Amino acid sequence: MKRVFESHIHFPIDMYEAEFTKKIDAETLRLIDHLVENLVKANVVKASLLGGRGKVNEMVKEAMKRYPELFIGLAYIDIDKDNPQILNYYKDCGFKGIKIICPNSNYDEEKYYPFYELAEKLNMVVLFHTGVIGNAVDYLVDSPFDKRLIEPSREFESKIKRFNSSSRFMLPIYLDNIALKFPELKIIGAHLGYGMYDISCAIARFRRNVFFDLSGGDVIRRHITERRLIGKEISSYKLLYASDGLPERVYDDVKIWEEELSRYGLCDNEIDNIMYLNAARIYGVEELEG
């Protein structure tokens, strides 16, 4: 396996249950060590570890403390409830960026500008969820009339409802406005704007500071490879490998992506851009070209 920069993996606690997590304990440390074991197995040399509600940002801080050579921390920020000055705290704690998801308004609303302005000033990366939010049930393969699936679907819907958000607030087009207003802000859109690839690719093509990650598993991988987006619509310089998956699945995900990108016809340098180098340059692990 080639060197890998995992640019989007969550601390292994359910995002929608994280707010109820109140303490760091022996189980937290076990989860960290288990995650590291699986990342090392996949030849991940750097990983952007995402925080969450409750104590999860502090858990990421603990992971960075235990494995400083591996983890780069991204603190979860609630841009509808947090004060922008909290970014100073996370910067002082060693976090290199922030993760934003489920806002109550469009990402590019002016009320959110203080977060982006300060992140730009602090040289902190901002990772945005972009595209349609999934569900606990996949109605491409499952029947909406199956009574057994109603309850798990309703349970997920009730969790999302607590955020007072929807996919319409997280369209990739909003990153275009943010990029123009804050040209030195390093912006990553997750999932290549799932369902809105043409817009995502167009923005990445003409906005120097906007990149997209490949997280999303088999669905997004199939869309990218079958449509042959890389090279035709989006450069290998603009994509970052990311699994957004469970620790146990990272090895297989890395292996499949490497095989797919090679079969796709990309050269070793292009594959290295996606799997490691682009993210390493964004986060200052590697020098820029020239």
From TrEMBL:
Domain Amidohydrolase-related: from-to ranges: 51-284
Keywords from the named record: Lyase
Cross-referenced Gene3D superfamilies: Metal-dependent hydrolases
Key word Lyase present: yes
GO MF annotation: an example: hydrolase activity
Pfam families: Amidohydro_2 (PF04909)
Transmembrane segments: none
InterPro entries in the record: ACMSD, Amidohydro-rel, Metal_Hydrolase
PANTHER family in the record: 2-AMINO-3-CARBOXYLMUCONATE-6-SEMIALDEHYDE DECARBOXYLASE, CATALYTIC_ HYDROLASE
Protein name: Amidohydrolase-related domain-containing protein
